């Protein structure tokens, strides 16, 4: 049986990917320090509780389980927090990843799926954004992931590391079966916050910025269902077992949704009208991020199937209501 070690497998995207790998016949091992993940989200195989910056623990786990592929999700992922505490992001995301990569090479585990981000592109110079678009991050979160991509390239050249780098656009939605979903403390992601405001009478949804250069003044993002993302990782794992080198793919839909359009979708799904206030832009937020994802379709055979905004909101709302 093929084995995948999933760092950050107790988190939002990581847990959905664990399910997808397990359903595709892989043996799944989760490695997570549970600082921002959830033990009850680990349902498809054992968990090793450890930090990616702990070389001894990483080494022991790699040598015990001998994974065919490491899928690396473990990272902090709040743009605003990264602006306020950049050192935290470079230490955890970038340095922690270096420790992981070095221990993989020592253990002769040389196949990596890396969870990267469209934040590495910065403000688009053209749209939609393809994989050749210049990378010029505008926040420490984006820079921390960009640095890891450079490490992967360099270690591939020097030591034969094989990798698939997946640059997500906006992961959203929840498992349709209700087995895992989106939970963050604090919650800063726009769809859960909008749903919370629609369901609970004591919450108000804040639109961060109404003066962007977009069709309605609010930020535009390319939302891709987390289940579609998870399926892309399984396809990436299969590619790594066939092909060598470093392969980079955007994961998005090619369709942008503004915050105002998202509010409309939440209103439709919830049957209510969420209260809205308007605030300033968040530091480090570009006006629009929309993917050109044709390369993933051509080379991985991947296409989003559940990523319409209404389907995304429907599954996220169902998950939220189950938690009440």
From TrEMBL:
Domain NAD-dependent epimerase/dehydratase: 4-252
EC identifiers of the protein: 5.1.3.2
Family matches, as SUPFAM superfamilies: NAD(P)-binding Rossmann-fold domains
Any one GO molecular-function label of the UniProt entry: UDP-glucose 4-epimerase activity
Reactions mediated catalytically: UDP-alpha-D-glucose = UDP-alpha-D-galactose
Subunit structure: Homodimer.
Protein's UniProt name: UDP-glucose 4-epimerase
